[in-house]
Amino acid sequence: MFRIICVLVVLLASFLGTSCSQFGGQHPAVTEPVPVENLANYANYPANVKKVISKALVLSRKNLTYHFGSANPRTGGMDCSGVFYYLLRHMKHHTYVPRDSYEMYMWLLRAGKIHHVTYENFHSAQFNALKPGDLLFWTNTFRTNRRPPITHVMMYLGKDKNNQPLMFGSSDGGIYKDRVMWGVSVFDFILPLPRDRDRFVAYGCIPGFTC
Q1: What is the β-pairing status of strands 77-78 and 65-66?
Q2: Which of 47, 69, 136, 146 has the most crowded Cβ, counting Cβ within 10 A?
Q3: Looking at residue 22, what is its pLDDT?
C-alpha cells in the first residue's frame, strides 16, 4: 500500500511538474541547486551558456518558493517567467526581456528562434536542435485566453551524467530525482503524458544572448 501511495504522489507531481499556475506562493520552498558538476559535457558549453547557468545556480541556492506574480527574489519566491525576467535583465541591462511566458514565446518567435514540437518523445528529430541554455515552453498549465495558450517557461540545462534531461526555473510541484520540488530549483525535464491537458510545444535560444 505504501508503494502504491508513493507512485500516486509521483504521478500527481509529474502532472503538476510543468506548472506555472495562477496560484501558489504560500507553500514552503523545496528546492535543490543546479548540479553544474553533474552536467555531462558542461566543460564544453559555450561561455554565454555557462554564464546564464551559473546565474541560475545562484538563484537556485536561495531556497525561493513559487510565488505567482513575483520577479524579485527578495519576496521569498518567484514565478516561472519572473525567474528569467530577473535573470536576463540582471545579466544584460540593455536587452529587452518580456515579463510573462507568452511574451517570451512571442519574443523568440518574432526573432525566428523557435523550434516547435508535436511529438512527446525526446528521440524525435524535432528535438535535434535543443541545446543547453534554450528556453522551454508549455501550453495549458492553467486556463488562459492566450493564443497560442503559452503558460509556462523553463530553461534547458542539458543532460546529467545519468543521461537525464534537466531544466531550471520555478514550478509549484515538479520532480527531481523522484522528489517533489517547489519553487526555484532544478527539475527533471519530463514531457507530459498523452492524457495530460498541458503540452510541451516549443524551445529556442535566447535572442541576443545564447543564439
Answers
A1: parallel
A2: 136
A3: 55
Q: What is the pTM of this model?
A: 0.87
End-to-end Cα spacing for the chain: 49
> Does residue 210 form part of some domain?
no
Whole-angstrom distance, CA of residue 211 vs CA of residue 187:
23
How far is residue 198's CA from residue 129's CA, in Å, rounded to a whole number? Answer: 22
Separation of alpha carbons 158 and 133, rounded Å: 8
* Strand ranges inside 79-149, DSSP E: 114-116, 135-139
Q: For residue 209, is it within any domain?
A: no
How many C-beta atoms lie closer than 10 Å to residue 149's C-beta? Answer: 17
The three-point CA angle 140-31-131 to 5° equals: 60
CA atoms within 13 A on the CB side of 194: 2
- Write the CATH number for 98: 3.90.1720.10
Q: Which three cell numbers stand for residue 193?
A: 503524458
Question: Among positive and negative, which fits the CA dihedral 140, 144, 145, 150?
Answer: negative
Max Cα–Cα distance, the chain, nearest Å: 56
- Residues 174, 187 contacting (CB under 8 angstroms): yes
Question: Domain range spanning residue 76?
Answer: 2-204
The total number of structural domains in the chain stands at 1
